Amino acid sequence: MPITSTQDRISEIYRKEVALSVFTPELGIVSDAKAALQLFVDIARERQAAGNLPSRADWAGRCAERKRLMHRKTHYDNIPIKPQRVYEEMNKVFPRDTVYVSNIGLSQIAAGQFLNIYGPRQWINCGQAGPLGWSMPAALGVVAADPTRTVVAITGDYDFQFLLEELAVGAQFKLPYVHVLVNNAYLGLIRQSQRGFDMDFCVQLAFDNINVPDSDDKLRSYGVDHVAVVEGLGCKALRVKDPADIEAALRQARVMAAEHRVPVVVEIILEKVTNIAMGVEIDKVNEFEDIDCRHPEGLKGLALAGLLE
Questions:
Q1: What are phi and psi of 247, to 5 degrees?
Q2: Cis before residue 80, ω within 30 degrees of 0?
Q3: Average pLDDT, the chain
Q4: What pLDDT is recorded for position 1?
Q5: Distance between CA atoms of 123 and 96, rounded to whole angstroms?
Q6: How far, in Å, are 83, 132, 262, 267 from residue 108 at the CA level?
Q7: pTM greater than the 0.85 cutoff
Q8: Domains in the chain, ordered, with CATH?
Q9: Cβ contact 139:117 at 8 Å
């Protein structure tokens, strides 16, 4: 649980001592995160009662106002689809107790920013980087552990291709879940990381698939026909190319999963290049899209309220 900023001491809480070597913190604590944070709160309250802790109520209030008035935009009507719209529609369709399974890459980073998670153990993620393909067997494991829950996986196309044969296991053992496959025919996170070097090297997954009809020339250039592969593994698949169709497809996928008792993949064709907000430090996050400003006076109102500082 690292907190990273050049202006503050780097503190970390981990259950295992070996993990403290990852970021070389100034203050390393080996503990259960919840127990440590509760102690922090107790000590802070003691110091506040003794008058030894400065009030940060103004700062906390401005943070709350930013959350209320400054949102990352999600409602795009672009074709090909912008990924932000996918998460907006997922929030509409899936219930509050949905268990989401994700892996690594831009799809996971965007999911962490845009998906609404309401309870513990509803965000099942591999952590850190490396295990491409993890999400599919992990989703099957979640379904097997609790068949009563709505389980939804969200991955990019390259992650999906790593262990897609596991879909046959889901069909064989009747483990239904919805797999949202956001396809941009790119290694998106690596591509975005290469921007600083003005590179676009070996990160494109696109090729002209000779088995896709010429009439669908845009889809033809996305390479792998995931719908055909999914159906060949005994599962069901839907493809979405228009943002207006995402909600209906997700609802249909839920019905199909319940009816057929197999994994159902919803492939959503994205624009090939989208940059997702991130930064090398917690206080220096780069935003690449317009802010969805909810202030009645727009950005001017945010500035006057001191919310852009």
A1: -60, -50
A2: yes
A3: 91
A4: 47
A5: 12
A6: 11, 12, 23, 16
A7: yes
A8: 1-50 (no CATH), 72-269 (3.40.50.970)
A9: no
